[in-house]
Design a protein that fits this description.
By secondary structure, this protein is an alpha/beta fold. It contains eight helices and ten strands. It is 37% helix and 24% strand. The strands form three sheets. Strands 2-1-5-6 form a four-stranded parallel sheet, covered by helices on one side. Helix 1 runs parallel beside helix 8 and helix 6 runs parallel beside helix 7. The chain is globular.
Length: 221
């Protein structure tokens, strides 16, 4: 049986995401999970300084509670957990986050979703309006720099993947924007939100975690 490591920036296991990914990956794949915050408490997380310049990220604790952390804080923890996964014989690991990450020290392949999403966006829309949905308002100012290019206008918006409170409002705003394509720019966004946005806009919606799962399926088969 082939193994894939799944490295979340929060805590494992990710019962909210894994079932949908397994539908794509199939039964002959063993998932080994690890979380950068495994072993940490909510009190530990609350002590993390949330400075915009440290790149604020959104994830969840094991009990499903949404949290905000910084890339600066979790990078060394992610490397530790990657080392752990590779000590278990894992040679293909996916980072369960769509943020920007550096090259990790690894004995195998480490898949970072951001580059996959960039390729799909650039290959799918050459001219038009792209909606990019972030998990937190702190990330929205990055939208133009991350996804904008000549001929493509960016409309950023936000909703929580873990504690969504205004999905209907989001859908109304997106429908009014006359978008050509929508990207759910967080690995935690569920299929339920994708379906609601697609129904409201009548446009294609790219869900990060399922897209990456299809790439993983290609890499292991």
């Amino acid at each position: 049986m082939k193994k894939i490591g799944m490295l979340t920036i929060g805590q494992s296991p990710r019962a909210d995401i894994l079932p949908g990914l397994m539908e794509i990956l199939g039964k002959n794949v063993e998932i080994v999970e690890a979380g950068a915050l495994d072993g940490k408490t909510m009190e530990d997380v609350k002590k993390i300084p949330l400075r915009v310049e440290d790149y604020i990220l959104v994830s969840r604790m094991r009990d499903g509670t949404e949290i905000k952390i910084t890339k600066k804080y979790i990078l060394p923890l992610m490397q530790e957990k990657l080392d752990y996964l590779e000590s278990k014989g894992i040679r293909l690991t996916v980072v369960m986050c769509t943020g920007n990450f550096p090259q990790f020290k690894s004995k195998g392949l480490v898949v970072t979703p951001k580059e996959i999403l960039k390729g799909v966006m650039e290959g799918s829309i050459k001219k038009g309006r792209l909606g990019v949905i972030y998990p937190t308002t702190e990330q929205m100012p990055m939208a133009e720099g991350e996804w904008g290019r000549p001929g493509v206008e960016i409309y950023p918006d936000t909703v929580s993947p873990y504690e969504p409170k205004d999905v209907e409002g989001l859908c109304k705003r997106l429908a009014a924007q006359k978008l050509d394509l929508v990207l759910l720019n967080c690995f935690g966004f569920p299929t339920e939100i994708k379906k609601k946005i697609a129904a409201a806009t009548g446009k294609p919606v790219v869900q990060a975690n399922t897209l990456v799962a299809h790439v993983l399926a290609e890499l292991i088969n």
